[in-house]
Amino acid sequence: MGFIVFLLKRILGLVPTFLGITLISFFVMHLAPGEPMSLQADFNPKMTPEMRQRLRAQYGLDKPLYVQYAKWLKGLVQLDLGRSFSPDRRKVWDKIRERLPVTILINVLSMLLILAVSIPLGVRAAVWENSLFDQVTTVLVFLAYAAPAFWVALLLMLLFGIEWNLLPVSGLHSLMGYEQMSLFEKVLDWSKHLILPVFVSAIGGLAGFSRYTRSSMLEVLRQDYITTARAKGLPERVVIYRHALRNALLPLITIMGLSIPGLIGGSVIFESIFAIPGVGQLMWSAVMARDYPVLMGNLVIVAILTLLGNLLADIGYAAVDPRIRTGLQEQE
Amino acid sequence: MRRGRISSFFHILFVLAYFIYLSTTCLAEDVSGQERPAYGDAIVVGSIGDASNLIPMLATDATSHEIAGLIYNGLVKYDKYLNLVGDLAKSWEIKRGGKEIIFHLRKGVRWQDGVPFTSKDVLFGFKTIIDPKTPTAYAGDFLEVEKAEAPDPYTFRVIYKEPFAPALSSWGDIVVLPEHLLKGKDITKSSLVRHPVGLGPYKFRLWKTQERIELDANPDYFDGRPYLDRYIMRIIPDPATMFMELKAGGLDWMGLSPVQYKRQTNTPFFRKNFRKYRYLSFSYTYLGYNLRHPFFKDKRVRQAISYAMDKKEIIRGVLLGLGVVATGPYKPDAWFYNPNVRRYPYDPKMARRLLAEAGWKDSDGDGILDKDGIAFSFTVLTNQGNSLRDKTAQIIQYRLRQVGIEMKIRQLEWTAFINDFIDKRRFEAVILGWTLGQDPDIFDIWHSSKTGPKQLNFIGYKNKEVDRLLVLGRRTFDREKRKKIYFRIQEILAEDQPYTFLYVPMALPIIHARFHGIKPAPAGISYNFIRWWVPKNEQKYIIP
Amino acid sequence: METALSSTPIREEKRWQKTLLDLCSNPLTISGLVIVGILVFTALFAPVLAPYDPQEIDTFHILEAPSSAHLLGTDGLGRDCLSRLIFGARISLLVGFVAVGIATAVGTVLGALAGYYGRWVDSLIMRFVDIMLCFPTIFLIMAVIAFLEPSIWNIMIVIGLTGWMGVARLVRAEFLSLKKRDFVLASRICGASDLQIVFGEILPNAIAPILVSATLGVGGAILTESALSFLGIGVQPPTPSWGNMLTEGKDNLEIAWWLSVFPGLAILVTVLGYNLLGEGLRDFFDPRKKR
User: Fold this and answer.
1) Which of B494, B269, B215 is nearest to A165 (CA)?
2) Do C134 and A284 touch (CB under 8 A)?
3) Calpha distance B457→B470 (Å, rounded)
4) Bond preceding residue C238 cis, omega within 30 of 0
5) Do A42 and B42 touch (CB under 8 A)?
6) CATH number at residue C174
7) Could you write out the DSSP letters of every residue in chain C?
8) Cα C56 from chain centroid?
9) Does residue C140 sit at the B interface (CB-CB below 8 Å)?
10) pTM score of the predicted model
């Protein structure tokens, strides 16, 4: 019961943020010199001033800004983001929708990879504080944190794709014979194509998360109840993994939510390097083409995704930490 | 490189290039290949950009035309020696001094959905292309037509207002459309934009945006079924990735960059598995000035800029020598090319003198020339994703800086470049390329009547004598007389330097060695694509 | 960057008396300091250090491997890579200072307002922070860049204006705890104005974490700039930046490894330097860490 109330509260709390996101996106769109319509109007060489005026009226551009915003917002809620300026004139939502699953898949995979690697790494580093292992991981973490993802991608492509010829370097799956593959082969094929992109997109996160796990773990290990548990003679493994880790991981869930925009942002880079038809690549080509509707659609959709990711993180947090859903801990 | 073309009727010539050179290994291959051609296999072609619109008259990008060219046919086409021959037209008659053309169409040709092809389809295509509501860039030649009619299903007649030399060649593959699928519909919203139905050797199979386009052989093609079962175009926006994919076996055919041609494909692996070709492409690259801009109104300034840069250096640095200097709007091996025009060798002293004559001096000592308090600084626009043009711009930038001119470079995506900047005349200078046709007519690019919005004389060039000659050239059928006319035009352009003509690059295709039947000719290599084949034991892909 | 910041509200006045020696006791911090020092030195003396004019084109020596004439080889136009790398340090230094300067200024002001005034001002600003944090920075930057002419300055300003949220949160937290402290209450009783309290009393005491976060932010800004330049929407030619040098490296990955390796290494080392320095400063200012 308390959980549902908590959930409703959280979702209600998202409404102003959502409106804020749409406001900022709308504002950015109106930074554009000229009007969003002008490109389309120019499409027709026989455009007369009267026709232009009629089109302006048709698009509502003669109305005050808040009316335009309301109209745009209404469209957004119905996922009507207008049509692309590019010659194919497709609906923006269609363009985004067909690319979204790929981007989400890669980001989810890379998040899983981050968690699977960085948590054990962080825990070990904390438990063996100042050991050689700790120092080596610290150095690695610093390196990974400082390495430009696109550069790492280039080097990996050079090594795995060219020198050793182990992995494919572009696209999502093999081109030929793909349709004839069995499901297992398809999965294998996708996996091979996804290894490098997922790894590249995870690097920054790996560093951040293992570092965070380490410090969070260190904090917990200093707490009294850990000392108590140790004093009771519980095996070290139990102390660390049952008592300490549980508490150390709690804040990590919030961090996960916060790191979503960074991850998605990275899509722009690795999707353009590995030729993956995702939202990041779409964004890049929209910037180059000054395809404003696609640009704005992308911006607002990605921000909403992040918002949902944060909500999920909150729910996850509440699920593991009962204090939150019962409202004992209202403020941080 | 071929993305650089701006719309013009030049496109219809799908043949791309004039053959100059081919590797010796390739020759040997062709001589020994006496076995019977086999059906089957697929060819995978790499493309930098995705197609935009598969109705030929609506598309202005090279990729769309490449795909549409395999799906649609014209009334006429160019053969391997660049002669006009019949395609959908079996034959034609030219009457009344060139004012009237009667095409006799092939019988028994069917659209890929089974509906018979008739002269109505040609008439429909013609009416569509001249309809002001159709957003096409190719209406120009067809506006010369006074009357077009389809007296019977296999006859199509056009009457021109005045004799029109490029008339015949204009009836290529952009103008024939399936009337039964498009009549009464808004062509820009038609499903044919993404699911074309044509008459050609290949049928549309699928199009995954930004990923690939697949075509299947059309078994009922009137000129014989193509040998290769499938044509697959993969869209890989990055040239380096594309090249890796070629090495990894994911591509059979791509255009190499000069660096890839010279430095990356001389390994045993490539010699064994691939054949390289090179020939002068049907295009040239230029630096064009907005002649409405106060800087560039003065002829001496334009000439000075031409003297200030070393075109040989550009060819060496950008093309690694794989190209020739351009002196005018034609390539050096065309019959209408005039080699004796004013040239602009690298001469910075001359450049400075001409600039000084025009009033440009560095009066404030900042290293940049100025006049009436305005510094000589301008921005050159070029299309993003074309590293050749980018490098060209950087070399020019470097050389201009040495004579005291600051040039900034701005790269723009193609569509935005054309729509926002070229069409609105919002530019100072551009680096672009033109694709060249087989006919010397360049009315659309240089005539003063073509300086309006969205027209091709976007630099605003106006010269009365050129205007007169361009019209005369269109009305003249005699080859020697035409040659004289176009020779004079080249002289004037060389003197005026409305563009600094830079270079004619080479086309550098590389194709997997299992493909047989590639026969380089004056028209390039792709003219006989439907006759390419792979021996059964070498076939790589099994198409069910 | 947020992940790297943990606010440490409890501070001791004594910490200012710690000597530089303390800061230098950590070898990682020293390495950071040295790296940043080298970067600054290189950027300042680039014209003296560079063996060639970084823009000098030499089409007779294109894509040459490292040799005694060109220690790091030449690029696709025959320009000397070492010289370009050296001049590229200027961009990195500049981006670090300007972008982070803007982000820190904006973040400090907004964070101070939120923390000091609390209530609706706080809710409003923090809501704004939450909203901004929903946008992947690079998407937001790209959307704005699409409307602007790409130039170094525009890039730096946009990076700055999209990167202030972490600082704002941090400063707010500092203000929340500091404004209840005795010395603040004392000066309020003495009739000090809000401005005097904020700038005279609270801010000086919050400088340490701001400094730490700014130092750590520089690395992020450099990475963002290089990514944008790599994608072709950042620093424009002929100005050499490590990011746009890598674009050429990508095009020639197979035949000119030196084009990819060195600029990437330069970025890595520089960002590493700032991060080590930032972490060192953080430990130094953190009273809980007694080394």
Assistant:
1) B269
2) no
3) 13
4) yes
5) no
6) 1.10.3720.10
7) -GGG--------GGGGGS-HHHHTTSHHHHHHHHHHHHHHHHHHTHHHH-SS-TT---TTSTTPPS-SSSTT-B-TTS-BHHHHHHHHHHHHHHHHHHHHHHHHHHHHHHHHHHHHH-HHHHHHHHHHHHHHHHS-HHHHHHHHHTTS---HHHHHHHHHHTS-HHHHHHHHHHHHHHTTSHHHHHHHHTT--HHIIIIIIIHHHHHHHHHHHHHHHHHHHHHHHHHHHHTTSSSPTTS--HHHHHHHHHHTTTT-HHHHHHHHHHHHHHHHHHHHHHHHHHHHH-TT---
8) 30
9) no
10) 0.81
Contacts 24+ apart (CB under 8 A), B81-86: B81/B521, B81/B522, B81/B523, B82/B15, B82/B18, B82/B438, B82/B522, B82/B523, B84/B168, B84/B169
Whether C64 is in a domain gets the answer no
Average pLDDT over chain B reads: 87
| A270-274, B158-162, B535-539: segment of lowest average pLDDT | A270-274
Burial class (CB in 10 A: 0-12, 13-18, 19+), B421: middle
Residues A7-36: tens digit of each pLDDT: 888 888 888 888 998 888 888 777 665 444
Identify whether the C-beta of residue B174 lies closer than 8 Å to the C-beta of residue B56.
yes
Q: Which of B394, B397, B411 sits opposite C232 (nearest CB)?
A: B411
Residue B169 or residue A55, greater confidence: B169
- For residue A296, is pLDDT > 60? yes
Q: Which tens digit of pLDDT belongs to each residue from B2-33?
A: 333 333 333 322 223 323 333 333 343 444 44
Tell me, what's the pLDDT at B306? Answer: 96
CA dist B121 → B87, B105, B124, B464 (Å): 15, 11, 5, 40
Q: Which two tokens stand for residue A135?
A: 């120092």
Which of B92, B154, B145 has the alpha carbon at shortest distance from B121? B154
Q: Does residue C18 lie in a domain region?
A: no
- With cut-offs at 50, 70 and 90, classify the pLDDT of residue C4: very low
Q: Which parts of B294-358 fold into alpha helices (H)?
A: 299-308, 311-318, 348-357
In a domain, C69, yes or no: no
Could you tell me where the DSSP H helices lie in B105-178? Answer: 119-130
Q: Which helix (H) or strand (E) holds A179?
A: none
Q: According to the per-residue pLDDT averaged within each range, which of A92-101, A131-140, B307-316, B328-337 is highest?
A: B307-316
When CB atoms are compared, the residue of C232, C238, C253 closest to B384 is C232
Provide the 10 A C-beta neighbour count for residue B519.
Answer: 15
Interface of C with A in 226-265 (CB under 8 A): 226-227, 230-233, 243, 246, 249-250, 253-254, 257, 260-261, 263-264
Task: Answer yes or no: do B248 and A169 touch at CB < 8 A.
Answer: yes
Residue B375 CA to residue B357 CA, distance in Å, equals 16
**Do the domain assignments include residue C67?**
no
Dihedral pair phi/psi, residue B266, rounded to 5°: -100, 20
Structure tokens at C252: 């020639």
User: In total, how many domains does chain C have?
Assistant: 1
Residues in B touching A288 (Cβ below 8 Å): 384-385, 412-413, 416
State which H helix or E strand residue B78 sits in: strand B76-78
Please report how the helices C257-285 and A132-146 are oriented relative to each other, as an axis angle in degrees rounded to 10.
120
Q: Give the closest residue to B508 by CA, choosing from B524, B528, B532.
A: B524
ipTM: 0.82
Cα C166 to its chain centre, rounded Å, is 13
> Best mutation site among B58, B61, B210, B383 for testing chain A: the one with the most A CBs within 10 Å?
B210
B61, B72 contact by CB (below 8 A): no
- Please give the single-letter amino acid code of residue B466: V
DSSP of B81-115: TS-EEESSEEEEEEEGGGTEEEEEEPSS-B-TTSP
Domain that holds residue C178: 28-44+74-289
